[in-house]
User: What shape does this take?
Amino acid sequence: MTEAIESRQVITVAAGGVRLRGTYHKPQGEASDSSADLGERKRIGIIFLTWVLPRAGNGDSAVYWAESLAKCGYLAFRFDLPGLGDSDGDLATPGIDVETGAYGSALSEIANQLVERFHLGAVIVAGNCAGAVTALYAAAANEWIEGLILLDPYFHLQQDSPAQKVLLHWHVRVIKLAGDRFAQSKPGDIAVKLLSRFRGIYHRLSQKPLLVRRKTLPSIANLPLIRCWKQLAARRVRMLVLRSPSSTPRIGEFDYLGFLQPSSNSDDRIIIKLIERATHAFAESHGKEAVRTNAAQWLSAYFPLTRCAETRDNRRHLPTITEGILGAVTNVH
Assistant: This one.
């Protein structure tokens, strides 16, 4: 426990006139002085975002991922966005507020301040669901963000249905009343399973089955977000997209990733992979481990450090890992 505490530091940034609080996971072997060791490796920071949860993530998932990547030499950060966790400000409503980029400017400002404070050469953002949406908006506005790890991103506007309104109301209420309990639950706990299932149902109800041609965007398409994706693809930003079975399109549902990938991925800069048996929250043991493994391999292949701390769980063999990642590229399911 003492070792874990010494490897972390609570930090604060100012964005949009409010104070945002986060946790910095120090790279293994780095001195407490953030300016140390600058000449030996490229400093890459990874920011983890959660969806209407404290920065620990559902089942402490964000903590697990940040600790794992910090052990491999990356600077990892977890932040509470405005109105969430320990940060000041007002909570944006999940749905239309987030879909139109409510948190994008705050995340962009976080990235700018981390680059200056920790002398970063690049920033990677990892986000789940609405966190992935926010990551896309921020990356389109900030050239320091050179890579994205997107977990179950969605590209449609939420439907204004009674069932969805009820789910949204109770989801936000539960998080506000017991967010810390859910975030600190273990992967196998009923709380984690319950919230993961809840989020999967909410995500599924947010779009109606639409019988449309593959090349035709439906009326509920989030056009500003799709423009962000295309802008990032044109800028050659690398993306790792991990999908859970609950987010894959069913018969009659429009396949946004299937629509976007061919037109924006001429050189395999966008990798899309289905994670079997994972939930929408990627918070159960299988999902957490799949995210850790795929993220570590992808980072090692495309955002390598000149020196990487080698641990028992994170061995760095770049040629093998690169081949593994390229072999893992899949068509959208």
Q: What stands out?
A: Strands lie at 8-15, 18-25, 44-49, 75-79, 122-128, 145-151, 238-243, 270-274.
